[in-house]
Design goal:
This protein is 37% helix and 25% strand. It has a single domain, classed as Rossmann fold. By secondary structure, the protein is α/β, with parallel strands linked by helices. The chain is built from five helices and seven strands. The chain has a seven-stranded mixed β-sheet.
């Protein structure tokens, strides 16, 4: 457990406060209103999504590989009285059965995983046919000039952002996956640096749906 990991976890919510207040919280709420049945959240962090899961969620599994984040996640779930199973595991290696989730959630996490293709493959493995993948991420800009700037700053930002790759093309990754995109939207993440402003929201349906 690194010192910077503990510092990052302690400051994470403070760093996002203005962005959440300026509209990201409302986006989370609208997207997660679609969560149903057995829900698995990838990289749940400190638990900012917990207040947005409604009564249609029957079982909630929160995965988080970073110990400082997981501890805060446990404390928030307990404080809110949310019944959740917290699993310390990376998105690339989920200790969950095939076709065991009705909904998989990924919010501001696919930029940090070491192997996004494997993480997405794992999400699809645990998703039941017809289940939904709910995605809310910041992504590589479709504007070539801004994308080049993201490439330039990525090495430094990855260190500052505790693994965040600001130039990751998550939208292209989803487009190439065996999913049916039910809806997708590009938006501007509010109150953040220009190179992390390009946002992407998607609802995708697993094979057989």
């Amino acid at each position: 457990m690194s010192l910077y990991g503990r510092i990052f976890a302690a400051l994470y919510e403070r760093s996002l406060a203005a962005t959440e207040e300026a509209g990201l919280r409302a986006r989370r709420a609208a997207l997660l209103a679609r969560a149903r049945g057995t829900v698995v959240e990838l990289g749940a962090g400190t638990g900012l999504n917990l207040v947005h899961y409604g009564p249609a969620v029957q079982r909630l599994v929160l995965t988080e590989p970073e110990e400082p984040m997981a501890r805060r996640l446990e404390a928030r779930a307990e404080g809110l009285g949310v019944r959740a199973e917290i699993v310390r595991a990376p998105a690339e290696h989920l200790p969950l059965a095939d076709a065991s989730a009705d909904t998989v959630v990924a919010t501001l996490v696919l930029c940090t995983v070491d192997d996004p293709a494997t993480a997405l493959s794992e999400a699809l493995r645990i998703l039941r046919p017809g289940g939904r993948l709910l995605v809310l991420e910041h992504v590589r800009s479709p504007d070539p000039a801004l994308a080049r700037f993201q490439d330039l700053v990525r090495p430094v930002w990855q260190r500052v952002g505790h693994g965040c790759r600001c130039n990751r093309d998550t939208a292209a990754l989803l487009a190439a996956a065996p999913l049916r995109l039910e809806r997708e939207e590009r938006f501007r993440v509010p109150k953040v640096a220009t190179f992390v402003r390009p946002g992407y929201e998607a609802v995708a349906v697993g094979e057989g749906g």
